[in-house]
Design brief:
- By secondary structure, this protein is of the alpha/beta class.
- It is built from 12 helices and 11 strands.
- It is about 45% helix and about 20% strand.
- Strand 1, helix 2 and strand 2 form a beta-alpha-beta unit.
- The longest helix has 25 residues, at about 1-25.
Length: about 325
């Protein structure tokens, strides 16, 4: 009997000690090396500005550098695909434009990854609004005059966007549909390039995600309207398109943070907590509001719902206008 008790005790001790390395591995500190933050648009655009505003205080909170890696192209697909195919080890994260994961999957039937399966929501970042901006040398000074000019010159005005399927593109199609005008869409790889050609006179107007404000204030560009449900506190005298007759016009999307599917839940929760802490810091709030946007503090589930709701809303205009990424 004593021998049986001894053997059982020895077996139990072996089982406990055998499990110790695994337990220690699960409890290993994280992070222990630099993190990579993929951004699926070029430097200077609104996703890049949000990512860089958050990266510094996030790095301080985590005790490791957070390196920004811009992977632009295909309306945000290239950067998102790189994130989706990265190891789910907590060292690769994605800051994506809202449109890349709410609109682009609606218009591209050859997505190289499944946004619902291969990426998981981590945290919100900024709720972006859009601003209808034109060159200052064109023969109109307000939205009503813009419409008259566009209707009198069908196909003559051009507007630039960061790419097919981005929120500025969808906003442009929404406006054309509701206002009954025909203008020509010119897709680029990022909003910084759109701004350059707008200032250079190679484009006529754009739905700006907040990178053109200094040129509006200097008079080089003209702000015609706000493309959201409410006026911007930065330009309180500028009416919304809804006020100007395009009822229900709202082109807002949320830039936010994602992880490769399979990333441990504890790491996602930690990142959500730390990102949300940065989003209320004065310097981060100032950077985001400098885009005419607002910080968007959300749980992982709450962020996922925002993207799903935006996707359902934009599906209507995508179907109506037969928009594709080709």
């Amino acid at each position: 009997m004593q021998r049986k008790h001894f053997l059982r005790g020895a077996a139990a001790l072996l089982a406990v000690t055998a499990g110790l390395p695994a337990a220690r591995a699960q409890a290993a500190p994280w992070p222990t090396r630099p993190l990579r933050m993929l951004v699926n648009f070029p430097a200077g655009g609104s996703p890049d500005i949000v990512a860089r505003a958050v990266a510094k205080p996030l790095s301080e909170a985590l005790g490791q550098p957070v390196a920004i890696d811009n992977r632009a192209g295909a309306g945000g697909i290239l950067g998102a695909d790189a994130a989706a195919k990265s190891a789910p080890d907590g060292y690769t994260w994605l800051l994506s434009s809202g449109s890349a994961l709410s609109i682009v999957p609606l218009i591209n039937n050859k997505m190289p990854f499944d946004p619902n399966r291969d990426l998981v929501p981590v945290a919100g970042g900024a709720r972006l609004e859009l601003f209808l901006v034109s060159r200052a040398d064109l023969p109109f000074t307000n939205f009503a005059e813009f419409l008259r000019h566009a209707r009198a010159n069908p196909g003559r005005l051009t507007y630039g966007t960061p790419g097919n399927g981005t929120s500025p593109h969808i906003a442009g199609e929404m406006m054309k549909s509701q206002a009954g005008v025909f203008t020509v869409h010119i897709p680029y790889r990022g909003s910084g390039q759109v701004l350059q050609d707008l200032l250079g006179g190679r484009l006529d107007y754009s739905f700006d995600p907040g990178v053109a404000f200094q040129h509006i204030k200097s008079g080089k560009l003209r702000l015609l309207a706000v493309g959201s449900a409410k006026r911007s506190p930065l330009f309180p005298d500028t009416p919304t398109l809804d006020e100007l007759g395009l009822k229900g016009f709202d082109a807002g999307t949320t830039h936010g943070f994602w992880a490769p599917a399979g990333t441990p839940a504890a790491m996602i929760e930690r990142m959500n907590t730390e990102i949300n802490r940065t989003l209320v810091m004065p310097e981060v709030v100032a950077a985001i509001r400098g885009l005419g946007a607002e910080p968007h503090v959300l749980s992982p589930a709450g962020f996922g719902k925002v993207i799903a709701d935006d996707r359902a809303r934009y599906a209507v205009i995508v179907k109506e206008r037969k928009i594709s990424q080709d």
